[in-house]
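Q: Could you fold this chain for me?
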Amino acid sequence: MTFRLEIDVTAPAAEVFAFVADFRTTPRWYSAVQRVEQVRGSGGLGTQYSVHRALPTGPAVNLVEVTGYVEGQEITFTSITGPTPFSYRYRILPAPLGTRLVLEGSISADGLPGIARLLSPVAERLFKRGMQDNLGTLRDLLRHA
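A: Sure. Below is the predicted structure, expressed as structure tokens.
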């Protein structure tokens, strides 16, 4: 499944980029992410994170790597291991009242067990709604920072 979501944030672009580019902030705004540990690198291209998530099917751990990076403009996180292969590309753009954050991504349920893998149309709708909610939480955090 591929998706594209965007939100406008009333915060400077540099602040939005710095927050999103540090994957260790993800548990503060992404509801399924419980814990993130930086395991390699200094935050730029090639940096890797161990991402611990609570999924409806149970706990999951993904090794995630920064596979695209343009300072202040965009960053791509790609799962290297784990049950739900994904790639999330965040782009930072100017907006009338601050910054527009665009998330373009893909995710697969191929690694999930049993029936969860077969429920992809329902799961896709729920995932998109959940991601929009997560971005709303991110926007609220940045607005009050």
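A (continued): Helices lie at 13-21, 115-118, 120-143.
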